[in-house]
Design brief:
Layout: H1 6-9, E1 12-13, E2 20-21, H2 25-34, H3 38-45, E3 49-50, E4 53-54, H4 56-76, H5 79-96, E5 103-108, H6 114-122, E6 129-135, H7 138-150, E7 156-159, E8 171-175, H8 186-196, E9 200-206, H9 212-223, H10 227-239, H11 243-252, E10 258-262, E11 275-281, H12 286-293, E12 300-302
Parallel strand pairs: 5-6, 5-8, 6-7, 8-9
Antiparallel strand pairs: 1-2, 3-4, 9-11, 10-11, 10-12
Helix pairs in contact: 2-3, 4-10, 5-6, 5-12, 8-11, 9-10
The structure holds S-adenosylmethionine.
Residues 67, 70, 108-111, 114, 134-137, 140, 161-163, 175-177, 180 line the site of S-adenosylmethionine.
Length: 304
Amino acid sequence: MDLPEISDLIVQFDPQTGQRLPVVQAEVVERFLSLGSKQAARVVAGIPSKNGLLLEDAVDAMLLRSHIEMQRLSEEFAHGSRVREVLLDLLAAFRVSGIPSPYRVVDLGCGTGFVLRWIAAHGGLGDDVELIGADFNTTLIDAANRFARLEQLKVRFTAANAFALPEAATILVSTGVLHHFAASSLAAFFAEHGRVGTLAFAHWDFQPSPLVPFGSWLFHVSRFREPLARHDGIRSALRAYTAQTLLQAARDSQAEFSLGVYNPLLGQLPIKRVFHAVMGVRPNLMPAFASASGQRFSRWHAWS
Ligand SMILES: C[S@@+](CC[C@H](N)C(=O)[O-])C[C@H]1O[C@@H](n2cnc3c(N)ncnc32)[C@H](O)[C@@H]1O
């Protein structure tokens, strides 16, 4: 993690209890200054504080505004329909293979829940499917539930660890989460999928490419207004992992999945998409998934 995002440092949790921890403003400002990031230091210095500690309400309000702006990325790149397409193929494969329902689709680190709300609004997954978004951040989850209520959608959001839900996910998805983990903890992340008995996963994140520095800067400067969202959005794209790193970590986890990268290129062109997905499907379900995907299966680039 060469240069952290602001959101990585202004919210801290006790890893054992999940309790929010106080954050000393001066320490975070100093950390960014020592890393040469005056812009990030300025943003943190501007957050209201009391007795030197960042005020949680102010931090949460800033994170919420940033996540609402982040929806623009998903809207721009038609992300909802891309995730839905993969889910439809996986669900078809489960049904043909006689996997008992209900099928639980969990969005890990769902933020304000745009992806699952989009999917719920467009429907068609079947009555045997439950949509659940999970995120540690209660402010984002409260907003996701409020939006879902207003939009009258059949989806629920819970402030929890996605790997510790009372009923485990059948399919785990995420968007823009993988780059938040240190490289050394990626294998442990993938190992969790095996531990909780997930049948398939698809994690989307930015795809590194030579166009990223300029493209990401241009998009964030033109479409984002919140300073934290601009800074973190540009950093996210720059620090995202390559497919090789992600697949190697998934393989090192020894969880039993057929692994691949899904939809990394723009059609038949040798042009990288903004997002790619690292995917895992239980080996016994791969033939049914390939058959359900049909033509789309050509977008699956198997681990070799
Ligand atoms: C950059 S945000 C995700 C943004 C969101 N997916 C979107 O597209 O707007 C990353 C989120 O992942 C959450 N997170 C990371 N690991 C998690 C886990 N195991 N369970 C639930 N949430 C997790 C963090 O709380 C954080 O809010």
